[in-house]
Amino acid sequence: MIDARGWAALALFVSAYALFAVREHWRVPVGAVAAAIALGSGLVPLSSLRPTSFSGQGGVVEWNSIGLLVGLFLFAGLLHELGVFRYAALRIAGRFESRPIRLYVVLTVLAFGLSAVVNSISVVLVLAPLTLEVARALGRNPIPYVIAEISASNAGGAATFVGDLPNVILGTYFQLGFVDFLEFTSLPAIAALAVILLWFRRGLGDAPEIAHPPPLDPPRSAIREPNRAVGSVVVFGGVLVVLSAQAPLGIPVWLVGVAGGILALALAGPRLVKAVLARFDWQTVAFFLCLFILVGALVATGDIDALAQQIGGWGGGNLLLTGTILLWTLGLLSTVVNNIPLAAAAAPLIAALSGNTGMAARPLVWAAAIGSDIGGNGTPIGASANIVGLAAASKAGTPITWSRYVRTAFPAMLLSLAAANLVWLFVH
Questions:
Q1: What's the pLDDT tens digit per position in 123-172?
Q2: Which of 144, 50, 136, 78 is nearest to 105 (CA)?
Q3: What pLDDT is stored for residue 210 in this prediction?
Q4: What is the distance between the alpha carbons of residues 273 and 265, in angstroms, rounded to a whole number?
Q5: According to the model, what pLDDT value does residue 393 have?
Q6: Which candidate, 281, 278, 239, places its Cα nearest to that of 260?
């Protein structure tokens, strides 16, 4: 049962979410006010803001995500200032100039594949600016490409242990590794990718052309300082390798992110550091902080647990039925609750379900990972990659409204979740 504090937390979250949807440019001040109310009223204890260990875990705020974002944003700013994104965009644009459909398939599959081995936030942070550059160079509307990439990145993140932060949370909790996820979640993720490719392909033919597209320049003309650019790409690749291997190495994600950010500033040097800092997206970082606090209020007051506990009763002890209910419940919840804290709440729930009913925990973990990762595609705040991708589009002068995103992505999310669910049933 939800008590008075639970209803208060739910009302606060719903009110803030409604304002996010209708007044997108107010998201930071609205989130800040709502977070302050949650803290001031005691719905979220101040002591819960700090992590309980060096690993960055244990608090309301997912500091691993915040630290990772800070580092990635700084590196993205450096690569942009050095012209690396523009260079890659011109190379791709020149290769696929007369084949926009092939360009769409390549970029979408690339987003999926990279997100299976590199955190999906990293992938979107790199691919979204690149795609915006490519689309402009070819005179194409970039919005269908960007939304398809975000959706594919979240689906690819479901395929492996390191692909998305919810998988890291669930895998760490149940001591599962890369091969475990690859064996049981990759096929459902590929099924979701197939749906995504077909769905967003429908919008490409109707997308209006961008007027007066810029002429294609030689790719090398985009690079400002070749030696510094090559060095930055190599170091950034090293950061991503460490990030993909951080779990077995025992390195906290936040530490990888912060260290990467410091390296980016060092590589920028005195001449570029000011420009890199100017490109830092502090609004998105602040929004993440507020969102974690709001979701923390739902977790602390028992709202999420109260809803999720119903799953055990609905499933009636049947593994496939319980897993399907868990997949869809987390998938739909992920459209309004960021999937990182949702996965944190799902982990102890699965343990309780397994302990109370005797059902195997691992199939439920796969269902939870698939639901939370793919379900996050439904709205702009459903997953971290969504927020990062839309922020990149807005920063590049191509804002994607909530209504446009939901109208396009929500049906694709439902269909891809259904396809993944069918494959999950077959695998188990």
A1: 787 788 888 877 777 777 888 899 999 999 999 989 987 677 788 778 87
A2: 144
A3: 46
A4: 6
A5: 87
A6: 239
What per-residue confidence (pLDDT) applies to 98?
60
What is the predicted pLDDT for the residue at 290? Answer: 87
Secondary structure of the chain in the HEC alphabet?
A: CCCHHHHHHHHHHHHHHHHHHHCHHHHHHHHHHHHHHHHHCCCCCHHHHCCCCCCCCCCCCCHHHHHHHHHHHHHHHHHHHCCHHHHHHHHHHHHHCCCHHHHHHHHHHHHHHHHHHCCHHHHHHHHHHHHHHHHHHHCCCCHHHHHHHHHHHHHHHCCCCCCCHHHHHHHHHCCCCHHHHHHHHHHHHHHHHHHHHHHHHCCCCCCCCCCCCCCCCCHHHHCCCHHHHHHHHHHHHHHHHHHHCHHHHCCCHHHHHHHHHHHHHHHHHHHHHHHHHHCCCHHHHHHHHHHHHHHHHHHHCCHHHHHHCHHHHHHCCCHHHHHHHHHHHHHHHCCCCCHHHHHHHHHHHHHHHHHHHCCCHHHHHHHHHHHHHHHHHHCCCCCHHHHHHHHHHHHCCCCCCHHHHHHHHHHHHHHHHHHHHHHHHHHC
CA–CA dist 180, 230 (Å, integer):
35
Look at residue 406 in the predicted model and tell me its pLDDT: 93
Q: Which two tokens stand for residue 127?
A: 């691919």
- Low pLDDT (below 70) residues in the chain: 1, 21-24, 89, 93, 97-98, 118-119, 162, 177, 205-218, 307-309, 311-312, 341
Q: Cβ(194)–Cβ(151) under 8 Å?
A: no
**Gap between the Cα atoms of 360 and 195, Å rounded:** 29
Q: 């709202």: which residue's tokens?
A: 303
